């Protein structure tokens, strides 16, 4: 039977993966062939012959053959990072993920005989463009013809029957995995499910507890019992096997303790000591010991939940349910702490290790396969019924229409089609085919997937041979179009970001904005450059805090004529459903369109770069702290200071691990560094605010006086309006607005003053101070002379001319360039 809907859902997890299918109304997780487990560890091992192994077997080699085994590659999705086995096999995260997907696909084929062609694959809510694209590529490489991505929290919500929850309800999905934590708020509005907000920590999960059990409980005890064991560390190749055994035992004991109060660990032999004697290790692990280790990690996750709620001004009381997802949520302590501290009703009726995969299959069953199957798949001599309908919708009586594709030319008038729903015993009645097409209405029941058998007959009432034989329809579940997980915009010349598409925008979407250029592009001069950097992230004040995903550029050697500064540039950003970003710049003076499809691959940062950046942030932090020392009274200052210290400590910790060779630690370092930068930015804002207000008030007053004295009526009007806006920005404590208004006030002042000769005289004086910066000194000297003469002669036009020419001799601002993305356009108002 050919499938008309995707039906298969896959949770491609960091630690474990699984594949599920919806059978009628219940979800079934297909067990793997290796050991009949529902979960397949997301691990790959290359054996000495170069063969690949996936799952439990690979997981067990991580410790004792670390050069040839790899796990947690999901954390590297969408980066250029690649892993090379000792045998020289090089694979990127998407290749490794493809192996896991292939293995799941093979399991289904082995158990059911079906070759899975299409699947819904879940991704974390925080996956951004490159990570999603890499996931799609992995699926292609694994042989899937068609995939749809679905966010993990949405999948979990669907498994818990979110579709039947009433509108405007919020659920919180708490997902603690092996190494990552995600919290997401989902909501349904007008029948569409969305992730309203999400947050998390890529380095918080169950394995931290395993690690602590080993290093804080077991290893000290081993050292106490066997003082002769020298240098008993995981880095010591002699003890690799021993640490592999400890890891397995610690995880197993921890899992047992989610049910019992005591777990027995017995490893015999653990290893050999220096004189070749076998070492036997026994330990009675108490639940209370493990709880003590786990408590701070759980507390950290609760903190993240609170933040995710607060960011949307939601309180626990606004959340109807908290869904528990991921292995560690089976721990009683975790449930107790969540219950005590958040007080939201917990839901854990569905196995938290497979709930995401199950939810993915619920969704998959509602998603029609995009294309009708290729003709080759329909055996010769059969009719193909190409049905047009939405497999999910709000309508209880959806319309279905279609085309009859005959195996050979035949007159189908008088043929009939009927739809029958076996469960409700509803029949559509026979509908006549007219000119090869038909149209009728179905009748569906709520809260289940409705199955309509197709009965297709010729004009004598004989049943024909045709495909498909049935279609499915479900009332209610609609997932919104794919949405953007982070905003996308353009880095401007002043290092602000103009957001084009905000986080949460449904895709596909195209937005056009008009900018003007701030630099001149001189024909023939390749060093003059117009550059439009496209960035992903939420920071509007500091574009360089966002992630650069690409840039549209044009230089002097590519233009037919000059593009003067101040020229219009129409910028269009388009993001399609598969999240490919295309940026386009149209420059009317050239009548030319520049286009760039963004390469979305993320680079993993180098340790050296991180150290340098961290050094810079530490300096920034120090000078800020020094300036604020007198300000301790203010509670917000004190609090932010503490957060800063903690953030800096976290960076330090990650960098230490990176220096010790932990490959994931550089990514963690980058993340922690960004967190530190954000906190420092916040203090700077607190710190800069009074100075900014002072500056704005001074400039404003000065401008007021000049306007009063020399301004035209329209200048006065403009000033009044600006003055009002500036006051509002101060009242609202909006530094971005205030900065902008300050600039506008400054511009107005310059405009009025530039009509007066004094202005040009002052400008010449100012330039004289900076004349060292000018390269062409002889020319500068000539111009200064000319300028002075013009002043003496009362030749205003001459003076202005000299000053402008001198201005152009000054080098471009090189100062901030390294820091900014060197954008050269500004928004046209
Ligand atoms: P991921 O989403 O990263 O693929 P999972 O949801 O599969 O991760 O969770 C894996 C983690 O759950 C591992 O750290 C494992 O030790 C832990 N785990 C599994 N079962 C239990 C249990 N009963 N109690 C506590 N932790 C568990
Ligand atoms: Mg998971």
Number of strands: 38
Mean pLDDT: 86
* Share in β-strands: 25-35%
Please compute the radius of gyration using only Cα atoms.
33 Å
The proportion of residues forming helix, as a percent range, comes to 25-40%
- What are the bound molecules? adenosine-5'-diphosphate, magnesium ion
Our measurement of the CA-to-CA distance between the termini, rounded to an integer number of angstroms, reads 59 Å
Q: Tell me, what's the shape?
A: globular
Which stretches are poorly predicted, pLDDT < 50 over at least 5 residues? 372-377, 814-822
Task: Please count the helical segments.
Answer: 18
Structural class: alpha+beta
Sheet with most strands: 6 strands, mixed
Q: What does the oligomeric state look like here? A: single chain
Briefly summarize what is shown.
The protein has 829 residues and is an alpha+beta fold.
Keywords summarizing the entry:
829 residues, alpha+beta, six-stranded mixed sheet, 18 helices, 25% strand, globular, binds adenosine-5'-diphosphate, binds magnesium ion
What does this protein structure show overall?
This protein is of the alpha+beta class and 829 residues long. The protein has 18 helices and 38 strands. The strands form 9 sheets. Strands 1, 2, 3, 4, 10 and 11 form a 6-stranded mixed sheet that branches. The protein is globular. The model is unreliable at 372-377 and 814-822 (pLDDT under 50). The site of magnesium ion has 5 residues, from loops.
